[in-house]
Structure formats: C-alpha cells, structure tokens
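It is worth pausing here to work through a concrete case rather than discussing structure prediction in the abstract. The textbook approach is simple: state the sequence, then state the predicted structure, then interpret. We follow exactly that order.
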Amino acid sequence: MTKIINAFEVDKSNQNKHNRHFEPDDNVESTENISEPKVSTHFEFEFDYSKILPTNDLIFKRIFWNKEHPDILICFLNAILRREDPITSVELINTEMDDQFIGKHGIRLDLLGRTNNGELLNIEMQNSNNDNMFKRSLYYWSKVYSSQLDQGQAYERLVPVIAINILDFNLFEDNRCQRKFIITDEKTGKDDFKMLEIHFIELRKRKYMTDNDELLAWTEFLKSPNSPNSDAIEVKTSTKNRKAISNAKGIYSTAIASNEEREKIRLLNKTLTDNVSRVISARNEGLAEGEHNAKIETARKMLSKGAAVDFVSECTGLSIDKILKLQ
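Step two, the predicted structure:
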C-alpha cells in the first residue's frame, strides 16, 4: 500500500524557537486565534498602489517568469527544493503574460516550466484561501501530469511533476512555513514513484523557519520587500541568492512604478473580485432556495398532521396564499 506523506520531518523541539528578529509591523500572523475575514459580495476596486507586494499575481509573474533574469526563478526553486543536484536552468512553457486577457474571465496566472532534469513545474501564488487548497493543488498537478501524453503515446514519456504553492494565508494548524508531500510505500517509506511532489510555502509563518536561510530571504522579500529586515536576512545567504533577490527587487520597483502595470493590476483585481462576487451571489441564491424549499416541506408535513393554515404560516413564515396552494 502507498500513501502520501509530508516529506519534511519536524523537529518539534525547535518548532517554536524565535531566534530571528522581525519588525513589529511585518504582518506576520500567528496561527492562534486566526479567523478568515467575512466575505462580502461588495468590493472596492481602488486601492493604494504603494502597498502592492510581490505577492500580487501579476507582479509575481513579472518577477519570476522573467527571460532577462532566469537566475531569479532558479535560485528561488533551489531554495525551496534544497537538492544535492541543484537546478541549473528552467525552460519557460507559458512565457506570455496573456495581457490581452487581463480584465476578462478565466485568466490563467500559474507558472509552467521544465527544469534541466526534464521535470515539469507548476508554480502558483495564492493570496486567499478558497477552502479547497488541497484538492485544487492535486487537481492542477494531475492536469499537468496527464497533459504530457497524446492518445497512443507510451507511458515511458511521462516525467515527474512538481507543484509549488506559495500561500499568503495560513493553511495548516502548526507553525511550519514549508512542507513537501510525496508518495511513499506505507511500510518501507520509500519514494519509488518519484513522480509526484507538492510543496506548500505559508508566507505568514516565515518567522518560524530556522533551517533554511535561502528560502527565508525569499519569503521576506515577498512580504516585506523594502524592509531593513529583508536586507539583514539576505546577508546570511549565498552571493548567487543575494544577486537574484537584488534583481527581483529591481523588477518589482520598476513594475509598481509603471502606470501601464498599475492599470493591468487594477483590471485584474476587478476581474478576480467580480468572479468571487459571482460565486458568493450564486452560493447565497442557492442557500436561499434551499431554505425556502425546507419551509415548503415543513408546511406540507404540518398540513398533513392537520395543523391550521394560519399556524403553519406563523411557524414557517410562508404566506397564507402560498400554504393554501400546498393543500
């Protein structure tokens, strides 16, 4: 029997050590007493552009899917994967930003690529929890994996797929910032499949990461790109990593200063919030319909027991005319 496991072992004795200094206003949130904000169907589309972070969907793709600075993505991936044989190159598969689709329904913002080892990558920046993150991630992984073959092609052509989810919200209950899931044999613990790898990076838990300075520097850049703390953490990393983050900061600064880029961000933000609004409205309509149907069923049962029409109306809230039609 096989099972999916979390491939990073937890050192519980070090899990809650706070041996790194973070600014008081660095927006790190504890996993305790956290509740998701109440969702409204009304959204404001104007916002302070100076507060846009590299976690913004468009900015994230501008930074990491950059042909002129491939070192940014490569260093970021190596910080996450921590392999003895690091990635040296990545072929960008969906290299276009699809600007013509910004502001329209269905825009795709995840990043697809192929490493020098032939593995496929699917990287996604998620800024809100839709309560289906596990299923979503596995679904996207499966879509990338299954899309490798056309009808009649041999299974030998299949290569491993690595899914990386960067989350700007808390998903798991503990304080770990990074975790990796693979398929292993239940008894031996061996990863004989070596085809599935799914990573989750929870940015708001970065201050608890004590064993990966390279990734810590990237997470701090994503959440606080201009803070002194970001510079202090970068100093502890490799020269190659510091250069890549410096390039990333340059792209970020240029992007948020561009009026054209700001307009695209505004349109994308409106599109995404419109989509959320439609989903919530549909859900509310479904709930209202379900509640109404339940009242109808209750009224029918009460009438079958001989209850008076006015009493049924009082109990269910249905009009007398509506109840009379049920008789």
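Step three, interpretation. The first strand starts at residue 2 and ends at 6. DSSP finds nine helices and seven strands in the chain.
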